[in-house]
Amino acid sequence: MGLRNFDPAVLATALATFVSFLGIGIVDPILPSIARELGASHFMVMFLFTSYLLVMGIANLVAGALATRIGSKNTMLLGIATVAVFAGACALVSTIESLAILRGFWGLGNALFTTTALAIIVGVAGGSSETAITLYEASLGFGIACGPLLGGLLGAQSWRLPFAGTSILMIIAFAFVVTTVTEPDAERQQGIRDVVGTFRHTGVLTNAVIGMLYTFGFFTLLAYTPLVLGLGALRIGLVFFAWGLFVIVGSAVLSPRLNRRFGTPEATGGALAVFAGILCLMWLSSATGVLSGLVIIAGLLCGMLNANLSTLAMGISSHSRSAASGAFNSLRFTGGAFAPITAGYLGQHYGATVPYLLGALVVGVGLVVLLGRFSAFRFSEPEPATGH
Questions:
Q1: Are residues 346 and 228 in contact, defined by beta-carbon separation less than 8 angstroms?
Q2: pTM for this structure?
Q3: Among 85, 86, 129, 197, whose CB has the most other CB atoms within 10 angstroms?
Q4: What pLDDT, in 10s, does the model give residues 287-308?
């Protein structure tokens, strides 16, 4: 399906998603600078991701319910505005504790945005929901890819500039969404109980647990690796820019092709196995060049898994899009929140690459869950894309 076939609201939301997810990757290159200038340990620096992800995970329970009451567009605008305010505040503080608190509020804003953006794209897509989700994941990946590059360029001058830059981009995104995004068809009003209730569906719970375990490995790679590469801000930005480009290829090219050939659950299982293998290789080598190359290659698997797990989350049950997305993202990001601080602690006390071994084991458990509950996905696959 070509871009011209999408509803303008789909494209507008995809572009806003790109801008929003710049804010995640933009922090990566400046983590060593923050640790050095604020006198913080690697363990403390990891709280910048943990507070963000923990609040984001919990807030997704509220975001899905809120969207059915005030509308997906209004919820998304509230999220973007929240990110703009607290990202700007991050540029003004001088302690790691203050940064961690503000990043928590940043996570709240991103939860409001993420849940509703995915629901809007699927809700107003004129064709296959799988194709719309592929566009969403490609926009997400491109945002994460460009974020480190921008963060590296600005962070080479000061670690404060990437935060200020994110705030400005969010203000631009806010204006863009106000003028171009339309509200999809209204969904039945729901509360937090309805969102949590989606976990009664075996497939929803299984997919969310797999997403949680995979996300632990994902953020072990994304949040912790900048601290052990031994590179400057710009070079870290370039490594993760290349990683992000591979995320796009994985979600937009590799995922649809392998899903059509083998099936979404089967392709997801293969991707989990390979991703766990890459994390094992990262545990075995501390060489900067090897780690950088493995990070970049891992982007293919991250892109595939992001797209596949989101596709299954949106099509696995008859629950509303907002409730399904909110439930999935809640468990996914709450589980991922413990990866950064765990990695920081293990790396500080037991060896720089030990966190990758734990990440590989956790992702491996996700594969075991998938294989053990494979029947939960037997009748839940979305229809394949009808165009290219």
A1: no
A2: 0.82
A3: 86
A4: 899 999 999 999 999 999 988 8
